[in-house]
Amino acid sequence: MAAKVQKFRELAKRDVVQSASAESQETGDIQTPLRLLLSSSTILVLPPTALFHVASRSRLVLLVIEKQRNIPTTDMAELDRASSPNPSVLAHVVDVHCHPTDSPVPSEVMDQLSIRICAMSTRASDQPLVRDLANKYPAKVIPCFGYHPWFSHWIAIDPFTSKEDHYRHLLVDPSKSEHAEAFDRLLPYLPDPTPLSDMITSLRSDLQAFPHSMLGEVGLDRSARIPFTPPSPVPYALHDPEKKELSPFTVPLEHQLKVIEAQLELAVELGRNISMHSVKAQQATVDLLDRMAKRFGEKWTRVSIDLHSCGLSAQTWRDIERKHPNAFLSLSTAINSRSPAHKTLVAACSPTRILVESDFNDIRPCAMRTWDMLCTVAEVKGWSVEEQWDDEAPDDRETWGAVRRLEENWKRFEKGGHLPAGKKPSKRQMQLEDWEEEE
């Protein structure tokens, strides 16, 4: 990887590279420039007709190499070979958390997609979009159905007499005078609430329709404030305003817990793995996992749970990892690269419990964003990154590259059936695991 970056630097010194912020980029004739995308850990040369936006560590950056600069063909070919992930390697990468249906999903992009993706849903209107995508591309899409904490106030736990009755009881603090005016302004934007029982019935139907589906995205979020905007139509990315005016209201944690616990109960019943969001809710997340383990016992460890774009402290993660053998974490450049702490978290995480994701709302850059995080994990862990794929895995796992290690982690996550903490596998279980590996 260092050699790849060095090659880019050599070209940069010869004044053949310009950088410009993606926000100010003019499209122009995209047949003329060859676009080179650089992050701190990987670079990629694309055909002239391709246009991607890739996150650097601080902002979106588009690096353009112009053909008029007379870059020697040998240099371009060498850079291309050095930087582009081999398709045979990419085929073993899984983006464990993304939101492709937030944007239009071009069929030509899906046809050429090398990786597998876990496609999340978040509210009632995008569950059918995820269903359709999974039906169309069953070999590439693991559908994930669930209701996100940002929209949990749309779900009613208790019986209500009216829309206003539900939201006023849930959101308004009578002791705060500013709430009254803000609530009157917000109420017209809010949808009619859905009873929790109806949501669970619909969720059950979706999960049962896809035996390999997951529960996601669900979770806890103590920082998200409800915006003064109506619910966006699908696809959301085309309709969501860039800047939203936020109300003073957040969804009470107690309500969020009731919504997620009902969904987790269903996941345990059906044996479905989970993708969980946790923001500014570190202790609440720890308590929730402990409560689920105590409530469901070995049924809980039959399913896997991924703390996606994990923002927990390294110490909190180590405590979770020790107590919960079914807990994994995944990281994304979109979220985690905003803070250098994500590398500390990677270092603290067991090499068998880490996964990678894009957490992106457009299918087009998902593969490269996932690859970017994979390279970051490899850098922190001191793992090599495969340039070619060998179907015969080396006997010595310590020599495995990052792609094979993370693929093995995904298989373990997908399979579930983890032993409770402190319990050793039986001789028969070890024999079965050896047999499955040989297969």
TrEMBL record:
GO terms for molecular function: hydrolase activity, acting on ester bonds. InterPro entries: Metal_Hydrolase, Metallo-hydrolase/TatD-type, TatD-like. It comes from the Eukaryota. Residues 414-439 are annotated as: Disordered. It holds the Pfam family TatD_DNase. This is TatD DNase. It comes from Steccherinum ochraceum.
